[in-house]
Amino acid sequence: MTPRNTIATIAAVVLLAGGGVWAAFAADAPPASYLPAPLDTTHILPPAPTAGTSRYEADRTIFLQTRSLKGSDRWTMAIGDADSASILQQFSCSAGVTLDKDTAPRLAALLLHIRKDVGDSTNAAKDFYKRQRPFRIDEGETCVAKPDSLDYPSGHVTWGWSVGLILAELLPDRTPQILLRARAIGESRVVCGVHNASAAEAGRTNASAVVAALHGQDAFRKDLDGVRKEIAALRKTGAAPDAGICKAEADLLAKDPY
């Protein structure tokens, strides 16, 4: 398999799994939030960049420069990373074991449970800052359909970094690989052209605050303990992810996309 075909396979695997986490629970009512109230991260995040500032111009420069990545292997990875429902598959290589709703059902359930807490914090901040997405400021193609929602902080990045932090806690010996992959999921939004680089940075801060708040909840910690046992058992008996796909992914992650 050629490198480009291998990269295309990475995207195909996650896209074909579309709805992977959520589909398993589609017949169930969405679980209640762990947090008693949405976390207001506007007190934590730096203000969104405004016209005339260096951060604003840096966002524009990065967006325009990364349009040249269209058709590259990194662009293909960004397309696959856009499917946030396939987050488990996206982390399989970095975790060193195949993750999906069937191999790790308790983990999948935990992720389903935190989605409202992650989404509530992100949406509230977006509504507060009202930062426009990069393609509404400068012309440029995107790797997926152009969203109608706001930019800052990125919901995809908040989601990916939240999952990365949780997985790093569950597999501490794989922390560097997991957090590198989590960072790349966020960078994919910039490569894709649907978020500014500042929105990706804010997404990581947003996620860190949400995950910290989740750890203050007894129910979350109890569920996490159950997932920890599931992951420990899976590491002993679970299948390793495809070595070719993981090698191609690692090669891409070793390069700074912008």
UniProtKB/TrEMBL annotation:
Domain Phosphatidic acid phosphatase type 2/haloperoxidase: 110-215
Coiled coil (UniProt feature): none
Statement: the UniProt record of this protein carries the keyword Hydrolase: yes
Signal peptide: 1-26
Record-linked Pfam families: PAP2
UniProt KW Metal-binding keyword: no
Similarity field: Belongs to the class A bacterial acid phosphatase family.
Name of this protein: Acid phosphatase
